[in-house]
Amino acid sequence: MVDVATRPTLVADDEVSRVSPVRWVRGRVGVIVASGVLLLAIAWALVPSIFASGDPLSGVPAQKFQSPSAAHWFGTDNLGRDLFTRVVHGAGLSLTATVTAVGLALVVGSLLGLLSGAAGGLIDAAIMRVVDVLLSIPALLLSLALVTALGFGTRNVAIAVGVSLIANFARVMRSEVLRVRNAPYVEAAHASGVRWYSVLARHVLPNSIQPVLALAAVEFGMAVLAVSSLSFLGYGTKPPTPEWGSLISEGRNYLASAWWLTTLPGLVIIAVVLAAQYLGRRFGGGQR
After folding, report:
1. Ranges for the ABC transmembrane type-1 domain (predicted)?
2. What's the topology of domain 20-54+64-284?
3. pTM value?
């Protein structure tokens, strides 16, 4: 026989455990939408022909400057090329450069932060002074200076953006290493005679990497913006190969008469940037 005093608690627990699907979806609308945007952009980059089977480089001059319609979702440009097809096929270069930049910054910055936090002393001071110098320079300005020195091309754009992001990853990794290295299990590993590099690989790094990965998701959105900005300025791939930033640049001369040439590719970039930053901050606790 169930005691009357405990019955309300049992009912309440049962009600909490049974959350309706509608309430579950409502609480995660932002995550679902942001994930859908990123997955769609990745699908564009991997299999663009499924979403836009046309040729992004050829057009019909007689159909130039057509506004968005059922036949041309994003309209056509000054050469009669379908803009939606060019946006879809341009996702490959733009996102490849972004992934390369974030991957470079993640690996190099994490290694520098790990070395700085674990070694301490003069090594820590030297690395952090370099990081401070990098942080004092605006990321876009640093990227612009680097890509000017390296030369034009999507690969050089990715390297330049990646170098400009290294300092953020190094700073976050160092702070996490400083927090973890004095943990009891790390001290126990040192006391038991485990080699220092084994302690770093097996104990310090795995327990320090989560905030860095969250930062990578946030910086992914900023890297998309930086890569597109450099492409807009003409440092990316050569025309007529489509790239998100270059598509906006090509349409700016026709902004008064063909607004869709800049607005719609710009909205795609904004959607990807906001989706990446939302997911990074949602699951990373706002780590920066």
Report:
1. 91-280
2. MetI-like fold (1.10.3720)
3. 0.84
